[in-house]
Amino acid sequence: MATSTAKRRVRDNPRAVTAVLSVLGYVLVLGTFAGVLPIYPELERATVDLLSHTIAVVNTFALTAIVLGVRWIRRGDVRKHRAAMLTAFSLIILFLVLYLTKLGGGGEKHIDAAGLAYYAYIAMLAVHIVLSAVSVPVVVHAVVLGLSHTPSELRDTAHAKVGRIAVAAWGLSLALGIVTYLLLNHVYGVEKYAMALAPLVAGRR
Fold it and tell me: Which CATH number covers residue 196?
């Protein structure tokens, strides 16, 4: 009974629920950036690198789930679309936990590049961050509507319109995040990784 009552309240007030959840998310992220949330352990460089790689994998799977979700809804397969989008949303929650742990633990890294490559990286990173922030309320709103309404009820809501905006902003943000990860950790950090692996390779000879 309590569950049905809560679901009805969410269904009747999706914008209010979206606002509350979005504000909570912003407070958590901004509090971590400002360093006013002393809840994170201090991390070693190896842990930071591991978290960076894990985050990239999570984001890749999330982007894949979004693409599949769009494909399935265009084919009219609501069940698969719903599963894909909830999977993507769950992965983004996991990303947020990993990212805030890395950021709060002092895991800031700087790209070893200069000139055009550096400014291109900064531009992509800036767009990625802006889109990540902008996509929060639209993604949350689309998910809130999807979870609180039946497929037939969703036709009378803004779910489809909000969902298209969410997919565009969210998808591009994820794609840029993956590209900047590759530039930061592999393209311009490849020499550091090669130097770190050199003793291991030599020891096997």
Answer: 1.20.120
